[in-house]
């Protein structure tokens, strides 16, 4: 299949519009946000990034690809890619509302009722309602079908009990979409439901997890008879696995291009360090730099090739390829960063701030695990894309 990777003149005018808006608005109180809040730094400037999210919403930069009848702008994939690239190129802060916009919103477009869309989409679009994802558990990470958090319908409410882990932004989220077992005695993929649960209630406790970097991007979330309305189930009760898989599929959509621009900035920093230290004269370092540059181009063209799923449609297994490409690539870049830095990369101590290379190396150790391990991605691709038998 032939794919045209070029943007037309109208697209480039849109790129200029996006760039101009970002330059104008990343000033004043928002100037300090430049370069903040990315992977490994989601703890930074939370209140300021919430205000920035509201600024984005007021200007119509949230939900670019959502249908206009839902409050979005109905823009095609090319314009969405351009926004993601320019956002990252400007060094704009890590999005504190990305889980709502890029995961829950598209899920409601695919599976939600009209009432659920009216209730939840406007807050995401305005940047006033933040979400987190309640999937992984201590014994159900990559093997998500092992979920044991349970929910029971009583007196018009779902009552949820269990534990979730590795929950990004749970400490600031207003709502959580929770995969829970609602049919007693059910196993694996059956009997699960996809529930929308308010976080600000007595039955929800959030505990930050301190990572190797010394920061706490992730959290444990404990549900102790937490409650949500009967209507807050997406899809039908017991059909949560299908809905959850739809969410995972859209997780690696257009926002991938913003992620890739972040990778480009990290690569540029490693390249500059290699030149400054003279490490670029090492044939092995030089070869690894070239390999990393090629990897960036492969990720971009692969992502462009797999775009095009319209809002409301469930993507195929092709979306799993993106995770399988970027996770090991990013780990290798972290390893390259500390090799370029040399012995200095091994220095540190209590209270000392990590260098850029150290933080990149430590944070990327988890890349091939969180968001679906590489083993799981390979299984999904083999079974759903290639049609191979379950092994």
Automatic annotation (TrEMBL):
Its cofactor is FAD. Residues 132-225 form the Acyl-CoA oxidase/dehydrogenase middle domain. Keywords: FAD, Flavoprotein, Oxidoreductase. SUPFAM superfamilies: Acyl-CoA dehydrogenase C-terminal domain-like, Acyl-CoA dehydrogenase NM domain-like. InterPro entries: Acyl-CoA_Oxase/DH_mid-dom, Acyl-CoA_Oxase/DH_mid-dom_sf, AcylCo_DH-like_C, AcylCo_DH/oxidase_C, AcylCoA_DH/ox_N, AcylCoA_DH/ox_N_sf, AcylCoA_DH/oxidase_NM_dom_sf, Mycobact_Acyl-CoA_DH. Residues 238-386 form the Acyl-CoA dehydrogenase/oxidase C-terminal domain. Residues 50-127 form the Acyl-CoA dehydrogenase/oxidase N-terminal domain. It comes from the Bacteria. Pfam families: Acyl-CoA_dh_1, Acyl-CoA_dh_M, Acyl-CoA_dh_N. Belongs to the acyl-CoA dehydrogenase family. This is Acyl-CoA dehydrogenase family protein. It comes from Planomonospora alba.
């Amino acid at each position: 299949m032939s794919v045209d990777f070029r943007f037309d003149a109208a697209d480039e005018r849109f790129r200029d519009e996006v760039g101009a808006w970002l330059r104008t608005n990343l000033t004043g109180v928002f100037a300090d946000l430049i370069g903040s809040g990315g992977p490994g730094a989601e703890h930074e400037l939370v209140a300021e990034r919430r205000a920035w999210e509201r600024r984005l919403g007021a200007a119509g930069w949230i939900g670019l690809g959502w249908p206009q009848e839902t409050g979005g702008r109905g823009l095609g994939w090319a314009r969405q890619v351009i926004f993601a690239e320019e956002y990252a190129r400007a060094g704009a802060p890590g999005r504190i509302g990305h889980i709502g916009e890029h995961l829950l919103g598209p899920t409601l477009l695919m599976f939600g009722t009209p009432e659920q869309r009216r209730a939840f989409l406007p807050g995401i679009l305005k940047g006033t309602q933040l979400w987190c994802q309640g999937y992984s558990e201590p014994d159900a990470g990559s093997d998500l079908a092992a979920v044991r958090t349970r929910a029971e319908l009583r007196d018009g409410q779902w009552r949820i009990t269990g534990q979730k882990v590795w929950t990004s932004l749970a400490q600031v989220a207003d709502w959580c979409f929770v995969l829970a077992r609602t049919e007693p005695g059910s196993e694996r993929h059956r009997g699960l439901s996809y529930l929308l649960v308010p976080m600000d209630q007595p039955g929800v406790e959030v505990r930050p997890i301190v990572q190797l970097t010394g920061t706490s991007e992730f959290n444990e979330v404990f549900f102790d008879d937490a409650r949500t309305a009967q209507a807050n189930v997406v899809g039908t009760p017991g059909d949560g696995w299908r809905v959850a898989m739809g969410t995972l599929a859209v997780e690696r959509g257009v926002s991938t291009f913003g992620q890739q621009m972040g990778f480009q900035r990290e690569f540029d920093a490693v390249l500059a360090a290699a030149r400054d230290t003279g490490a670029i004269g090492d044939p092995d370092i030089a070869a690894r730099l070239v390999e990393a540059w090629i990897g960036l181009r492969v990720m971009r063209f692969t992502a462009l090739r797999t775009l095009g799923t319209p809002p409301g449609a469930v993507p195929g297994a092709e979306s799993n390829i993106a995770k399988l490409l970027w996770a090991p690539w990013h780990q290798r870049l972290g390893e390259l960063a500390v090799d370029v830095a040399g012995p200095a990369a091994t220095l540190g101590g209590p209270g000392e701030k990590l260098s850029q290379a150290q933080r990149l190396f430590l944070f990327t150790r988890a890349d091939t695990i969180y968001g679906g391990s590489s083993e799981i991605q390979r299984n999904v691709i083999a079974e759903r894309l290639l049609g191979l038998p379950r092994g």
